[in-house]
Specification:
Ribosomal_L18; Ribosomal_uL18_bac/plant/anim; globular; Ribosomal_uL18_bac-type; about 40% helix; single chain; Nucleotidyltransferase, domain 5; four-stranded mixed sheet
């Protein structure tokens, strides 16, 4: 097994382990974060109905700076959108990623805007 295949397999196993424990409801939706090499996206998902309540992404926007700065901007944006739909508490789904660096910047920016998790 190549190193890349092993890395992807380990990440998918971590993701499944996290998702088995994290479940969003209408009162406390799941904040799912996806970070690629170029873009960042975050969604508030109600798992009971399978509906996306709010979303924020860098795709198609003119947010510039480092990836950490983009993550912080998306964290602020998703928190503001959550307040518009009257959500102030979420369950954080890190999608198998380690809570450090870019993911931490997004989470801290969302917390600074008043989102609780």
């Amino acid at each position: 097994m190549s190193n890349l295949a092993k890395k992807l397999l380990n990440r998918s196993l971590r993701k499944a382990r996290v998702r088995a424990k994290v479940n969003g409801t209408a009162e406390r939706p799941r904040l799912s974060v996806t970070i690629s090499n170029m873009h960042v996206s975050a969604q508030l998902i109600d798992d009971a109905t399978g509906a996306t309540l709010a979303a924020a992404t860098t795709v198609g926007t003119k947010i510039s700076g480092t990836m950490t700065e983009k993550c912080a901007a998306i964290g602020t944006d998703i928190a503001k959108k959550a307040k518009k739909v009257k959500i102030n508490a979420v369950v954080f789904d890190r999608n198998g990623r380690q809570y450090a660096g870019r993911l931490q910047a997004l989470a801290e920016a969302a917390r600074k805007e008043g989102l609780e998790f």
